[in-house]
Amino acid sequence: MKKKICFNSTFLIHGLAVLLIFVLCCLNIRKLDYIAVLNDEFGYWGNAASLAGYDWKELIAETPYYAWGYSIWLVPIIIFLRTPEVWYKAAIFLNIFLLIVSYFFCCGVAKRLFSKVNKNIIYIVCFLVIIYPSNIIYVQVAWSETLLYCLMWVATYLMIRLDEKFSYLKTVVLILVLLYMYMVHARSIGIVGIGLLCILLIILKNKKSVFSFLCVLAIAGLGYAINNYIKGYQLSEFWSNSLVSNMNNVGLNTNTVSAYLEKFVGNFNLFLESIGGKLIYLIVATGLTIVVAIVQFAKEEIEAYRTKKILANYNITKIWCNFAFLASWGLCSLQMLTWTDRKDIIVYSRYMENAIGPILLLGIIYTITRIKETRIALVISAIALLLGLRSVYWRILEAGGYFNSICSPIFGAFYDFFESDTYKAFCCIGIICALFFVLLIIATFFKREYLKYGIVLLCLFGYFIFLIKNGNIYMNEARAYFDSSTVPIKEMIVEEYNTQEIYYIKNDKDTYSVKPKYLQFTIPDKSIHLTTLESVANISDEYILLVDLSDNNSIETLEKDEDAQLILTTNQLNVYEIDRE
Length: 581
Fold this sequence. Notes:
24 helices; globular
């Protein structure tokens, strides 16, 4: 007698979730061959390439400092794989793996925080949290965002386990995870600070000795000292202690703290505008659920304070989820005060979205399980949008420069979908948010759970898919542009000029000497040297010379140089063969 095959619903949902995450992340995989986000990717890859034995030092010295925590993942990729195209795809698959790991940690957190909610509903919500559009878009770039997002979930899982039952081992592991987040990117400092405070609260909750407090601080201090030592070595050996490296070289020192305090005090009105603009971004990005999370958390904390249960019932974990995100939101708003040459500055979100996962989880689950209680939060969201959306619109419309969609993917999806027509983009944002508000309010009156759950989850899923699809427009166009400039030069050098040295005339118009960095990644074993127009005449023998198309003075001079032959022109660079023999 044949046994019936029974399908485990948990296994099926997990399998479908992983498959869909993988598919969504791989929509553009054929186009993902080379770096495309100016200094960020080159900083991470340059660091890793140096550790793997390549010499990119002259261009690395023209790059702001990027920490080593993500780069160490790239080193084995460079060592064991053969070509830059394969390196890059391997880094993307690493990002996908980290996002899938995030899904399972998210499920682990959600099951503990919401043990009374049906586990299949929990898994569907976790899937939605993970495919938050910025996550899928950031996965398709070889930088630290997905690793930071995954570490946020690992830290949250460890926090909730520590909140459940104290353990010195879990405490040490959690501290190490927090320190590693800082080593991946210094902007995690707010998250690290909140994490350490929450650990101290858990120690207080479990009535441990003062020695336990001191141990936490000692481990954190030792980790910070080790990171500073490694950073100092990097800056010396790879960045040549250049002035440019100081751009991202921040730490817990007097200069950094005073600089940020001055920026805060001296630009307080601008700070309020920045934090308000990012609130509008968050409301739009999360389908109004972010305000639900914050309002519900505030209500719970007031009740916990009233009943003296601040340290009970996973409350410390919820404090962590909310305040870690609020710290990231505040720091992001503070960092983005003075970048006046960008249209997206008011809604710049990349520096805070690695911390959004846990609070988004709370927002969605609160919305579907306590839907009648969400009406106040939904009204607050609607009022905030009515008051703030118009101001954000005029700020973007009047700002100079360009809109960098890769750093503000949600608004970027609308902006690029309507081909930079700000008015149409904001009309669409307003209409979609109004529909969300109406549907969610209607859902609060349904008695059947499957109708309430279905409306919220299907609306969010459809909305996220729309944003994922259109949020990639900017990056796809940028990659096509850089490929058309870089690939022809790379192919020509490999096939015809592989034995010649390569120089680039450094000029003021190409800040940080960005343009040759794309080429350096594609030909890793050849060092691209920096030179000046005055020094070109003193370089003997045959060599290849790269010149920025905007550098008219160099181009005019080389046209008169009998030893210079123009052999290729792309949309960014002129390529000359110089023969002074």
